[in-house]
Every structure is written in structure tokens, then in C-alpha cells.
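Marked as duplicate of an earlier ticket. Keeping the data here for the record.
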Amino acid sequence: MPTTMLDQARAMIENAWGQPIEALEVLGVRRPSEDPLLRCAMHTRTALAITDNAVTVHQDRLPALSRHGYVPDFYELDRITEAAVSLRVAHAESRVYLQAIRRVVEAREAAAPEVEAPAVRLAQAAVARSRQTRQAPGDVPEPSSPAAVVGPSAPATGPRC
């Protein structure tokens, strides 16, 4: 069974918010100010549902107009072309809505404070501390790599005869 874009959107939203879509619909309507990103995702999902329905209608209409062995009348050629164009437009709109939902989910993830494991934070702190060198007040730090020697190692005293 092929997965529709509406199914993909449902899975994305449920994974991001950790609740079934039915519960999220209620939360988005009752308390829209608490989570504006949820409200945005649910509105976009509603628009996706409308275009998904249009895709289904056009997918059913197009084969009916161009079935095997059927010779369409002249006026039906325009209907076939219009159905094909409408199907492409509905697919494009569905992709745009799905991408918009993906961006809302990414924005939610970016806005949420990162919860890292304590071991990861401790390791990062240890690496940051190890990069710092202790210096006495007034000491000039040494360069991290030795300078390359250019020219002869002993000074020249003049021309030799």
C-alpha cells in the first residue's frame, strides 16, 4: 500500500509532538497560544488533506477519460488535458504543504532546548578545559608550533677567501 503525503505528514507530526494526531487536533484548537507551531502544522495538514483529496479525484478521473480501447471525442481531449494538469498541480501543492510541515517540525526541534546526556556534556567540558593552558600572570604564551628555520643555522661572518 503506497504511503500518501498525508500519511507522511501525520507520521512527522505525531513523531515530533509524541501524541496521536487526534489528540493534537484538539490541543491545536483549544489552546492555540500555547503551541503556535502545533497550530501551524495542523493548519498546513488540513490544507494538505484538501489537496490530497484533489489528487485522488484527479487520479480517478484521468483513467476514466483515457481507458484502454476507448476513443475520446474531440471535446473530451480538453477534459483529459485539464485533468492531467490539475493532477500535476495538486501533486505540486501537496509536496509544498508537506515541505512546510517538515519546516515547522524542524523549527520546533530547533526551538526546543537540547537535552544532552550528562556524559556528553562532561566530555565537552573536559575537552574545553584541556585546551586552556595555565600561565603565570605576565607570561607571554609560547607559539603552539615551532617557527621554521630559514637560512643557514650559523651566522655568516663574511666572505671566505
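See parent ticket for discussion. The helical segments are 5-17, 21-30, 36-65, 74-111, 118-131.
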